[in-house]
Amino acid sequence: MALPRYTEPHYRAWHYLYLTICTAVFFFLIAPLFVIFPLSFNSEEFLVFTDGMMRLDPDAFSTRWYKDMVYGTKNPWGLAARNSFIIAFFATIGSVLLGTVAALGLSSRHMPYKGLIMAILISPMIVPLIISGVAIFFFMAKAGLAATHTGIILAHIILGTPFVVITVTATLSGFDHSVTRAAASLGSNPVNTFMKITLPLILPGVISGGLFAFVTSFDEVVVVLFLAGLESTTIPIQMWTGLREQLSPTILAVATCLIVLSTLILVTAELLRRRSERLRGINRH
Amino acid sequence: MNSETQKILTTDGIPLEVSLKKAERKNKIKAFLLVAPLLLFIIITYVIPIGSMLTRSIDDKMVTEMLPKTFKSMETWDGQELPPEEVFEAFYLDFQNLVDERREGKLSTQLNYTKNGFKSIIKKLRRKSKSFVEGNYKEQIMSVHKRWADVEYWQAIKRRAPAYTVQKYLKGIDMYKNDKGEIVNVSEDRRIHRLLWLRTIEVALFVTIFCFLMAYPIAHLLATLPMKYSNLLMICVLLPFWTSLLVRTASWMILLQQQGIVNDFFVFIGLVANDARPEMMYNKTGTYVAMTQILLPFMVLPLYSVMKTISPSLMRAGKSLGGTPFTTFWKIYFPLTIPGIGAGCLLVFILAIGYYITPALVGGASGTLISNQIAFHMKATLDWSFASAMGLMLLTGVLAIYWVYNKIVGIDNIKLG
């Protein structure tokens, strides 16, 4: 972004102001996340940077809060983590299956009432979460599924499918249908064509939709707050309770682990996006 | 001369037109069958329950069913003076049934919503009614407590006769039906919901504006920088986007607390005195700061994806025609980014208007929003019909915003990531 030499001084000043503003905004976006790292290694119980930490005194740092996270009895983080992973796993599988199949139908040019059906299918993403929470709670209570894992998994499938539908229909929009016709003309049945031709091509879209569904479920707290019983506590629920009662360094240890997890997801999602863009780029030429 | 055109037949001898239609229909059914499982699932578990919120919010059958005889006998009562003996007798019979089923507590809760003061007199009536003798129930009931001899309480009961009511909606905007059936405001000191609605809209609006002001420059920078730099900076946007909402809220709680880093910094640069550190959390400031940072990626991503498609040669063309950088930006670049601005603002505003977690944690009393009130009634007071009514009012607002947006910008113009 080097400026040409003939730039007038006031534009030059404006340009540097612009860069300063951008830097400040980026700092505002990312800096809060980095506060958590050092504080989670604090050896004291306070959530402030101690003098020892400022001096980088090794005694001021410890992993005691990580030990507390794993072995501590006050908050059942282990149980919460297990529940969260189980729920997110099944919710992702459900969302991906239902969403991908529906996206295939929606991308067909023969699909009637496409606009209306699309609006219904993505409505859980559009409606404020609190309303979804109330509505889903009423359904689950009536169906006798409140306070069960099944209920939470179903709720998260509802919330996760819109992402899968959107990403997969987006991938399918650049899809060259002549390849499936070619497969059919060579004697392949539709299932075989889907598994061998369509699926590998739309896989990046399916996986990134699945990642969205996974994160939605893994991070979801509003609906679970309405649905969860004592048994089905999840990481977000534990964090929510912890943050409401008392902000302890153990929560920061958990938060650090979650940031590491989200970094992994981010990297995966980015790699997939680039791959998908490359594949679609090839299709276009 | 044969004017009839020869119909084209398929090899099976069926007219091509018919055969084609059949194939089209088959394709239609096939496409629909693929969508059907998800569509049914969403309709049953989601769309219908939202509809059921409507019936729940206007449903007032509970009292109607608890006092069937009373309401029947009240039909002929004009409601001006104390009701006649039949009404008292019918009420006594209904009440005895409720006592047998141990449901009189529910009745008192319900009637108390309509008029304060029912709880104690129903309790008293239950105790005294055991020793009631047959006949002249009017005298006997009236002697239990002086409020039973007050016509206003009987009017209040009569108001619960219809099986449907809009009372919950009126309550949501701090109004109610008074004894004469007029719709009036509740007294000044009890108007909390209107304040909450206004605050919700205010917070959503300002968060949207803040997000827009912050997102526009960085989206522009991301879209114009060379790939290798912009990819790196994109991480700054995407990492918060993928990080748990609660983690981000927790980090704001640490930063904004009174002994927190932001306050430390203010003290360090001499903005505030060490012993007068401002409270930045558990109020509206906390809500604004945290929500802006949390929702910022939702503004940056649509803006970025639109700006990425704008060819830099347009700006060069504008400049070569004599436009200053400012006019080229304002006349060429800015109008082209409007679809992105629209999408980002819509997204952020709608997310903000239904926000629950962050205001509940950093908002304190002066930073809570309407969704906190809905959750409060769902979980604490268990007044589910009121929660449903407020939820539907919020939903109507959100749908109205979509509708207006669709009229002005067009939903199809939305570009997401």
Characterization of this structure:
The complex is a heterodimer of chains A (285) and B (417). Chain A is built from 12 helices and no strands. Chain A is an all-alpha fold and 285 residues long. Chain A has a single domain (78-284), classed as MetI-like fold. In chain A, α4 (77-107) crosses α11, α5 packs across α7 (149-173) and α7 (149-173) crosses α9. Chain B folds into 3 domains: 1-57, no CATH class; 61-163, no CATH class; 193-413, MetI-like (MetI-like fold, Orthogonal Bundle), CATH 1.10.3720.10. Chain B has helices at 16-58, 61-66, 68-74, 85-100, 104-114, 118-129, 137-142, 151-159, 167-172, 193-224, 227-242, 245-256, 261-268, 284-307, 312-320, 325-336, 338-353, 357-362, 370-379, 384-408, and strands spanning 175-177, 183-185. Chain B has a two-stranded antiparallel sheet with strand order 1-2. Classes of the chains: A mainly alpha (285), B mainly alpha (417). At the A-B interface, α1, α4, α5, α6 and α7 of A face α1, α10, α11, α12 and α14 of B.
Summarize the topology.
The complex is a heterodimer of chains A (285) and B (417).
Chain A lengths: L8 H32 L10 H4 L9 H8 L5 H31 L6 H13 L2 H15 L5 H25 L4 H8 L4 H30 L2 H6 L7 H11 L3 H36 L1
Chain B lengths: L15 H43 L2 H6 L1 H7 L10 H16 L3 H11 L3 H12 L7 H6 L8 H9 L7 H6 L2 E3 L5 E3 L7 H32 L2 H16 L2 H12 L4 H8 L15 H24 L4 H9 L4 H12 L1 H16 L3 H6 L7 H10 L4 H25 L9
Antiparallel strand pairs in B: 1-2
Provide key terms for this protein:
heterodimer, A: 285 residues, mainly alpha, MetI-like fold, 12 helices, B: 417 residues, 3 domains, two-stranded antiparallel sheet, 2 strands, 1% strand, flat, disordered C terminus
